[in-house]
UniProtKB/TrEMBL annotation:
Source species, domain of life: Bacteria
SUPFAM superfamilies named among the record's database cross-references: UDP-Glycosyltransferase/glycogen phosphorylase (SSF53756)
Molecular function per GO: hexosyltransferase activity
UniProt keyword list: Transferase
Pfam family, one: Glyco_tran_28_C
InterPro entries: Glyco_trans_28_C
UniProt cross-references to PANTHER family, sorted A to Z: GLYCOSYLTRANSFERASE, UDP-N-ACETYLGLUCOSAMINE--N-ACETYLMURAMYL-(PENTAPEPTIDE) PYROPHOSPHORYL-UNDECAPRENOL N-ACETYLGLUCOSAMINE TRANSFERASE 1
Glycosyl transferase family 28 C-terminal domain span: 264-335
Protein name from the UniProt record: UDP-N-acetylglucosamine:LPS N-acetylglucosamine transferase
Length: 364
């Protein structure tokens, strides 16, 4: 390994919108380390804790996130986000000042920003990662066009834009990452998932339930599932999405509920399940595609991106999706059993991102 490559210092900064941005950056960080780079991370709270657990030797700088607040009711989700644009803009300005100091103090050679807008730098390569070139809102029309212009204005300040998806029709994100016009420096890097297929895994569960998302919708979905699953003749594992508070209990014959699983345990649980039930968060979708799992999707109410992804991927035949407002577990399982699932087949390699990272490291 060359001395030059081993001396490269790369800063990785995930958005604090759920844990998906942090978890999807894990394979990228591993690949940078494999290429001999010294990786630094900037994060706070549960995102910092998750990444510190995965990379105990990595220095993690405390950097405040955008700290988005969510509406209590799904129909106000989009409006609540738009109202917080001034707060996000102030956070972006803070990021800019912070980055200049960190780059100077630690001699950072490159930055990977997962959907954080203020981490571009005029003197070093910077990469913006996003699957939302088009930002969906409940309002559509001119609001979405305006947000896209703002989005592109920031993306174009970066050296490159990496999209975690595949080009062409066989993709997971639809028009979110395949709009009519792309930023000129866009590269599709394939699926980003920390999970790995394994042969010969013994089936343990009819159903794996992954509960996630902002409150109160996380708790609303948990209550729906727990109330309805107790009367069904299924073997199931429910993962409540509450890291940091241990719980492991049998809530009905054949049904176990836990608060959290680490990456290895969750990988194994997904492989050992016939069907997965989850939100349609994009990182979860990449995990499902990587492991070639059948899934029932329940988009977070009011979150336009998840609603769109659920409808788009059901139309493609990859997953079965239905709204939370109409959810009945028994009916959903019956309808999913009749749904003509298609595997997410594609010509590209699921490890396509590795080559992109290697080329990037060589270019620094």
């Amino acid at each position: 390994m060359s001395t030059i490559r081993s001396s490269r210092k790369i800063l990785v900064v995930p958005l604090d919108w759920g844990l998906g941005h942090a978890t999807r950056d894990i394979p990228l960080i591993h690949e940078m380390q494999n290429a001999g780079c010294q990786v630094f991370i900037a994060a706070e709270g549960k995102h910092a804790a998750l990444l510190q657990q995965e990379f105990p030797q990595v220095t993690i700088f405390p950097l405040p996130g955008y700290r988005i607040q969510y509406a209590q009711k799904g129909q106000f989700f989009g409006l609540k986000i738009i109202q917080q644009i001034p707060k996000i803009y102030r956070a972006v300005k803070h990021e800019q000042r912070w980055l200049k100091k960190i780059v100077a103090d630690y001699q950072i050679n490159a930055v990977i920003s997962d959907n954080r807008f203020g981490l571009y730098h005029k003197d070093i390569p910077t990469v913006f990662i996003t699957h939302q070139l088009l930002i969906k809102t409940p309002f559509g029309g001119w609001i979405e066009r305006t947000l896209q212009k703002i989005n592109y204005r920031f993306i174009n300040k970066y050296s490159a834009c990496w999209v975690p998806d595949f080009s062409g029709n066989n993709n997971l994100s639809g028009e979110l990452a395949h709009p009519g016009k792309l930023p000129g420096h866009t590269a599709y890097i394939g699926c980003l998932s920390r999970f790995e297929p394994k042969p010969g895994v013994t089936k343990k569960y009819d159903l794996l339930v992954l509960i996630s998302g902002p409150e109160p919708q996380r708790s609303n979905l948990e209550k729906l599932i727990v109330d309805q699953i107790k009367s069904l003749p299924v073997t199931a594992l429910i993962v409540s999405g509450k890291p940091g508070s241990p719980q492991h209990e049998t809530i009905a014959p054949g049904v176990t509920q836990v608060n959290h699983l680490n990456a290895s345990e969750l990988n194994d649980a997904m492989l050992a399940s016939d069907m997965v039930l989850s939100r349609s968060g994009y990182t979860t979708l990449m995990d499902l595609a990587k492991l070639n799992k059948k899934a029932i999707l329940i988009p977070t109410p009011g979150q336009s991106e998840q609603v769109y992804l659920g409808e788009y991927l059901m139309e493609k035949g990859y997953f079965y999706s239905l709204p939370q407002e109409e959810f009945n577990l028994k009916t959903a399982l019956e309808e999913a059993s009749r749904f003509p699932f298609r595997s997410f087949h594609h010509d590209q390699d699921m490890e396509q991102y590795k080559q992109v990272v290697q080329h990037f490291v060589q270019s620094i």
